[in-house]
């Protein structure tokens, strides 16, 4: 028996109840996933739906909704648009997210022809909007987002070094301690990186020309593919499951390098379109510093060998930059 389409989804999308249905589609470690088909004003439509239980799902879907639309606004052909999120009516404590349907099996002609590198470069060179109540673009994001199951504090900050040290490194260390208990050696190393290495490598006035741009935030190869969005146009290079922040563009590269999967052709094209931030001789260490966050987050979530990866990065960076 097919799942019933909840009245909250029907209302949010303006769909006719009698013609709407959900079919299980894809998979997620944190949610149930479906293809939603139905009719609106006599026209057949299709969407992608996620559902999940509890406040964690509500936070996750709110962040994904805002993230998808931040990317879509900047590069419309790069990801599905998100249309609605909220609480289900018929299922207490359950929540939903509805986005454009992304057909990852499509090879339809007629797409933009833009490469992954070209789209990511466009995303990373478009200045972020100015948030309400501020006089200029800021580092952060309007809502919390989740990287895996970790809720991220995206409170606005004027300084990128301040944001990365406090909203990312120190915050994920606290998350890990709450889940797994205090690890004093790890905590001491993270504090030294946050207090010494981050200001040295990312400090205001040291990095040249850094402005907030949209960063996907969780761009490993499993969150990239090629597909047709909303049944329109042709197949495109696309990304999904974002965890966005308005941040330094190079922050994106940490997780991309951590898990690999992006070939030499991609990197050559991307670096031509988005030159390394000055001082460019420190680029490799900056990317290692950004990769560190994801090692810490994976250790907080999964334990295991990610601790050794984090410690290795921190020892190297502290030996070079931690004595100031």
Automatic annotation (TrEMBL):
Native source species: Lasiosphaeria hispida
Q: Which residues form the signal peptide?
A: none
Q: What is its EC number?
A: 2.7.1.172
Q: Which family is this protein grouped under?
A: Belongs to the fructosamine kinase family.
Q: Which Pfam families match?
A: Fructosamin_kin
Q: What is the lineage of its organism?
A: Eukaryota, Fungi, Dikarya, Ascomycota, Pezizomycotina
InterPro entries, A to Z: Fructo-/Ketosamine-3-kinase, Kinase-like_dom_sf
Q: Which reaction does it catalyse?
A: N(6)-D-ribulosyl-L-lysyl-[protein] + ATP = N(6)-(3-O-phospho-D-ribulosyl)-L-lysyl-[protein] + ADP + H(+)
Please report the name of this protein according to its UniProt entry. protein-ribulosamine 3-kinase
Group of enzyme by EC: transferase
Q: Which UniProt keywords apply?
A: Kinase, Transferase
Q: Name one GO molecular function term.
A: protein-ribulosamine 3-kinase activity
Q: Does the keyword NADP apply?
A: no
